Amino acid sequence: MPEPERDMRFRRQEKIEGRGISPRRLAAAKRALQRQADALPLFSAQIKAEQPTPEERIINHDNNFADWKQGCRDAAAKTWREARAKLRALPREEQEMILKYWNKSGMPAAAHYFATVMHQYIEQGWRPEQ
Asked: Nearest to residue 115, comparing CAs of 105, 106, 102?
């Protein structure tokens, strides 16, 4: 008996690299720091003394964005693992039916969409059209 198709479509998330320091970003960082200092003229000197340099601001922004994006990737991976575990817990025929539906559906190939399909199938009794 031939092995049924077990491939599952998914969308790969790319890693984020820092954009680096460019003249345009440097100018924007300088303007942002100046706006912060100008917002409270009475404390302008104190604010400027406590501010990071424009280069540090850009690096901090890139690091914060990379951390946020990695958190999003980790959450998506966790969702994929949980949804696939639910799929593996089902009988083989049901797994094949759901995979066939998923691979042909027009839904984006993202973790939360597949998790929704699994939730609807298991908890709500929804069945894909044959």
From this structure: 102
